[in-house]
Design goal:
α2 (40-61) packs antiparallel against α3 and α4 (84-98) runs antiparallel to α5. This protein has helices spanning 28-36, 40-61, 69-80, 84-98, 103-123, 167-188, 193-207, 212-229, 233-249, 255-267, 298-303, 340-347, 351-355, and strands spanning 18-19, 22-23, 144-145, 152-158, 161-165, 278-282, 295-297, 320-324, 330-332. Helix content is 51%, strand content 9%.
Length: 360
Amino acid sequence: MVVHNPTAKGSWMAKPGTYRGRHYTEWVDEVRRLKRENLLDEAETLLLGLIGATEAEAQAKGWPSPAPGYYENLAIVYRKQRRYLDEISVLARYRDFSGDLGGKFAERLRKARRLQEEAEAIANPSTVCPYCAVDLGSVSQRTGACPDCGERIVVRTVKGTKVMMTEAQREEEQRQKVRDKALTKANQAGASTVEFDAEEEALREQLGVALPMDVFWSLANRKAIEGAAASDWVAAASAYGAMAERLVEEGKDPYGVYAKAVKYRLMTRLDHTPPDRVLFVSGCDCPPCQVEPRKLTFSEALENPPIPHVECKKKICHCHLMDDRGEGEAAAGTSGSGCAATMMFTLGLVALLFFAIFIT
């Protein structure tokens, strides 16, 4: 992968944060157009330049990490092209700059590594017994005993290609999938991969065993409590939201936990939403979600949140509160899809935080 050097002689970048005379945030529509028209090579060239611009600005302003949007866009381009090593490289580049890789970036990196391993196995399917290393001449078509050593060879189909492995390898593969799922949920709850590893080791020392989802629950509970105690409403909402989603996956009642996530999402608006701002409930159209009150003030919503609706016909209520403009126009509130107040707040932030939410 060719890496753009923003400081190289002849670079178009006049100052940190700009590329070809424009700030990197001004290239969003062009990136979307290239991706939409499937001009992936052109998109790669542009994105490499824009990544260089974000890194230059972060370094110049002393930010701990650059805006992540273009890294993810480039990773998406590489995924479409099945260039998994390049996808791994650009994600690692962001990790090396920022010091850690959490949330959806960590999940994407894990998936890219698995896809690369699968691609290598498909490209070069081994005909060697995974136990005794005797060449069998061809790949076995079904699970069975090795004709030489007698050990049970597990045969798995990967995208139409047969791959041989030991039973231990298959068990490890399945274990890793379970762990990756728990790690992804922990990332959603606000825990880093490093924190997950440390918590896993601590539980193993304490209990003798550390099941992946036990690690998630331990971390998510801690993040929720710490976030609320520190008035970090975003952190608290993320942690409770991740726990509620997991309860749904386990077939358990999520509403006690999900109600806390909704309330903390509301509290993220404390600094930029006046108490008398009128909100209305929007979202699901099932009858239980059409109950009153449909409209209420922000202060009333904080005191007694009208959502989630416990009787919602879906697995979990996805209703949300939106600003009532009184003119038939609504802008998103807790859903974050376009409220004018939220936009004014966002525009007051530094360009780094503004750009971090633009990706599609």
